[in-house]
Structure formats: structure tokens, C-alpha cells
Design goal:
alpha+beta
Amino acid sequence: MPGITVKTEIKSCPFCSSEKIKVEQMEQDNGIKVWVCWCGNCGALGPTHLNWSGAIAMWNLRRSQKTLLAALEDIKSIAKDPGHRTQRTQIQTCRFFDELILPTIDKALAQAGKDE
């Protein structure tokens, strides 16, 4: 019986616009295997799902620009504020935060200001 090839569109990264999106299965700390999409350029990680197509569907789900910009502002303020020690540590332990993610946030916020 021949294999079935399924072609599913995966949207570019909502943060850096890269087309280098990976879909991989990973095992969570509790032993459950889940699927996740992530950007091979900036490291953005999508929501996990129990199946491959669900992970892609969740990655492709986009929020409004206003919601995304508010989230970016929150991340940036938490990362810079010593009063948010626990959250700041969690954010800054993300791979490439200072080198890639923070400049990407700044660029997105600056671009949003130009578009208004």
C-alpha cells in the first residue's frame, strides 16, 4: 500500500517572518509526547498539541496585532524589571533572548508605531 503524502501549509513566524518552521515531537516532563512548531530562525515556540496537524493548526492561529503588541510590551517590561525576578529569569533563560528575541521585539514595536 503506497504511503499518503499530506501537504499542510505552515505560516511564517509571526515574530521574525521566517519560513524556517520546524514541526517536531517532544516529550514533556510528565512523559507525554506532544508535537510543537518552532521557528528555526528566532526560536519562537508554538503551543503544543497531541498530534502533528493540531500543532500546525495552533501555530497558524494568529492573534490580532494589538494583542501581540501588548504581549510584547509585557515581555519586554518583565525582562527589564528587577521586581519581576521569577518571570524575568524564565524569560531570559530562553535561548537567544538578548541576542535575537529582544531586538525582534524592539523592531516589531518600532514598526507598529510607524504603521499607526
